[in-house]
Amino acid sequence: MNTIIHRADTRGDANHGWLHSKHTFSFANYHNPERMNFGVLRVLNDDTVSESRGFGTHPHQDMEIVSIPLEGDLKHEDNMGNKTIIREGDIQVMSAGTGVMHSEYNNNPDKPVKFLQIWIIPNKRNVEPRYDQISLKDIAKENEFYQVLSPNKDDQGVWAHQDAWFNIGKFTKGNSDEYKINKKGNGVYAFILEGEVELNGEKLSKRDGMGVWDTDSFTIKATEDARVLLMEVPMNIN
C-alpha cells in the first residue's frame, strides 16, 4: 500500500473576502508542483461563500464537476436551462463536455454556504453537457460507507464520465468499515469532513486528506464521531 497525507493546515488558502477557499490541489493562484492532482482527481476546493454572494456566469469544458454542500443552500443556474437550489444532503454533478456556462450563488441572505467543489478529469472528451442532482437522505446509512457517485447510470447516486466511485460514511466513535477497491489500479483519496479517524495506522482529523493506492482494500475506524468522503479514481490520466 502506498499513501500520501495532506494535513488540513497545509492546503492552499485563498481569501477574497466574500469567498474563502482552501485548495487541496493547485488551483487559480495557488500552485504547488507537488500537489497537482491525485490521479484523475484534479480539484478539491473547500469553499465558504458569504451571504448572497457567489460565482458569476463562467465557462467550463471537458471536466466532471461535483458539488457537495456541507452547510447552507447553493443556487445554481446554467445555459442548459437548469435553475435549482443545492442543499446540505444533496450532491450535484455536471459534465462540462463541449462547454457549459453556469453560475453559483449563496442562496441564504443571513448565513454563509459551505461546499466542496470537486473536479474529475473525464475519460471521454467533447461529450454533450449534462446536469444532475439528487438528495442523499434516502440512501444515507449509519456506520458504513454508501455510494453517492459511480460510472454507471443505473447505480445508486449520480454518475460521471470516469471510472470513479465516491462514498460517504458517517460513523460514531469506535465504529469502522472496510472499503474495497472497485477497479484494479484505482486509488482512493479520503477526505475527513468531520471528526477523527484512523486509516492504516495514521490519525486523521477534520479536513485532513489521505491518498491510498496499490491496495485492494483498507479499513477506516472512527476514533471520534466522524464523517468521511472517499473518492476512488484511476491513478493514470489518459
Automatic annotation (TrEMBL):
<protein>
    <submittedName>
        <fullName>Pirin family protein</fullName>
    </submittedName>
</protein>
<keyword id="KW-0408">Iron</keyword>
<feature type="binding site">
    <location>
        <position position="102"/>
    </location>
    <ligand>
        <name>Fe cation</name>
    </ligand>
</feature>
<feature type="binding site">
    <location>
        <position position="104"/>
    </location>
    <ligand>
        <name>Fe cation</name>
    </ligand>
</feature>
<feature type="domain" description="Pirin N-terminal">
    <location>
        <begin position="13"/>
        <end position="120"/>
    </location>
</feature>
<dbReference type="GO" id="GO:0046872">
    <property type="term" value="F:metal ion binding"/>
</dbReference>
<dbReference type="InterPro" id="IPR041602">
    <property type="entry name" value="Quercetinase_C"/>
</dbReference>
<keyword id="KW-0479">Metal-binding</keyword>
<dbReference type="Pfam" id="PF02678">
    <property type="entry name" value="Pirin"/>
</dbReference>
<comment type="similarity">
    <text>Belongs to the pirin family.</text>
</comment>
<feature type="domain" description="Quercetin 2,3-dioxygenase C-terminal cupin">
    <location>
        <begin position="148"/>
        <end position="233"/>
    </location>
</feature>
<dbReference type="InterPro" id="IPR014710">
    <property type="entry name" value="RmlC-like_jellyroll"/>
</dbReference>
<dbReference type="InterPro" id="IPR012093">
    <property type="entry name" value="Pirin"/>
</dbReference>
<dbReference type="Pfam" id="PF17954">
    <property type="entry name" value="Pirin_C_2"/>
</dbReference>
<feature type="binding site">
    <location>
        <position position="60"/>
    </location>
    <ligand>
        <name>Fe cation</name>
    </ligand>
</feature>
<dbReference type="InterPro" id="IPR003829">
    <property type="entry name" value="Pirin_N_dom"/>
</dbReference>
<dbReference type="InterPro" id="IPR011051">
    <property type="entry name" value="RmlC_Cupin_sf"/>
</dbReference>
<feature type="binding site">
    <location>
        <position position="58"/>
    </location>
    <ligand>
        <name>Fe cation</name>
    </ligand>
</feature>
